[in-house]
Amino acid sequence: MMKKHIPFLWLSLFVLTFCKGQSQNFTPVKDAAELRSELTASSQKIESIVCDFTQEKNMSMLAEKAVSKGKFYFKREGRVRLEYQQPVKNLIVMNNGKMLMQDEKKTTQMDMHRSKVFQQLNNIIIGSINGSLFAGKDFIPKFYESNALIKVELTPVSKTLHNFISTIVIVLDKKDFTATRIEMNEASGDNTVLLFSAKQINGAVQDSLFAVK
Question: In a designed cystine with 179, which of 16, 18, 35, 103 is the match (CB 3.0 to 4.6 A)?
């Protein structure tokens, strides 16, 4: 079951719709330090996020891309819930170093601190929301902008992580600096894209959604 979820987890990095972004003309950001400060300040205002997501997986072994849809929840401090609703139901919850994975047949809970892979995944997801991912410790960032969007291209510093991921591309809305698209390009040549829509920021989100024993 764990292997079944790993491709999506590498994508999820990540928290947080680039449909418009693909037609945008991006140019390099002139003052990256100032942008980092803006991202940090904006992230501190985010208490919760609820939105729909569409996952598109492009694999060399598949003639057509695999598409899944579901619901994404985030709540401070570092609580994440991903509900797959189509074409099959699956659930992933990350909370305080614990992870729950559930499908129609089985529920698995684990301590993420026992796995560097899942610990790194958690750091990527939370880091894309609170801005720490763009600080340049684990990834080398390059910043670009258009009139309405910010695009961040991230290259892994660690050789271990680089064996799985060649680059991560995150597109942010300038209105609130939340992610609208996350693209993960794997070293194998496969590609995964996560599109977010119908975002609700700082609304009420029940703690029970993130329960992990």
Answer: 16
